[in-house]
Design the sequence.
């Protein structure tokens, strides 16, 4: 997340969502093609719809209207969850809504989330996604790079935590490494599990979508 040294605020979140939405649009065709090899081929379309819905609620995220970023983070995340829940298609849209809703519960009433709390938040999201989708670590899903990023961030030194670029580089590094590790493993859940042998050697579409998301959060 493109959080400043002072932590994640609604203003920081809103700016990150702008970059995230643009990346979902540019990656849509690639994600549809990847998803079409083992699934319904609608992952990119779904995330594009999520991006469209996020853009629609984006102007109202900073509810104080003064641009200082002292709005309620929980309310901002909740608005994002509701926007993504309206996107039809791939179940990934539902998982994204669950992720935002989990973040909303964890930040309710708060105006700032210290960067040091990001690993805990990612852990909470990981548990919520596993409970909602039924996947476990090792099933070759988005959960695996998510957990890798959580662990990588938790291992950063104090100096690295103070550097937004270092935090982002760590997240990108952990995501890429996880995708490589799982490439030659079979998918064990979802529609892709029905074609487990065919999935060996193919990247999981959800993992690639997650990589696009992480990369889009590069600090300015």
Sequence:
């Amino acid at each position: 997340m493109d959080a400043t040294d002072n932590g994640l605020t609604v203003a920081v979140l809103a700016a990150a969502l702008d970059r995230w939405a643009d990346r979902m649009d540019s990656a849509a065709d690639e994600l549809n093609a990847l998803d079409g090899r083992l699934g319904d081929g609608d992952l990119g379309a779904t995330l594009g719809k999520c991006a469209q819905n996020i853009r629609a609620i984006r102007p109202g995220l900073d509810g104080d209207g003064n641009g200082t970023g002292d709005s309620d983070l929980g309310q901002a995340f909740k608005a994002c969850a509701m926007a993504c829940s309206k996107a039809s298609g791939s179940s990934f849209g539902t998982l994204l809504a669950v992720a935002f809703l989990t973040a909303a519960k964890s930040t309710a009433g708060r105006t700032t989330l210290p960067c040091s709390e990001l690993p805990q938040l990612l852990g909470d999201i990981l548990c919520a996604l596993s409970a909602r989708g039924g996947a476990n670590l090792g099933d070759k899903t988005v959960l695996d790079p998510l957990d890798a990023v959580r662990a990588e961030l938790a291992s950063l030194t104090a100096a690295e935590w103070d550097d937004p670029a270092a935090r982002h580089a760590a997240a990108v590094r952990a995501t890429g490494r996880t995708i490589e590790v799982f490439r030659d493993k079979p998918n064990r859940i979802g529609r892709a599990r029905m074609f487990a042998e065919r999935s060996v050697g193919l990247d999981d579409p959800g993992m690639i979508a997650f990589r696009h998301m992480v990369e889009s959060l590069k600090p300015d």
Summary: Residues 58 and 70 are 16 Å apart (CA to CA).
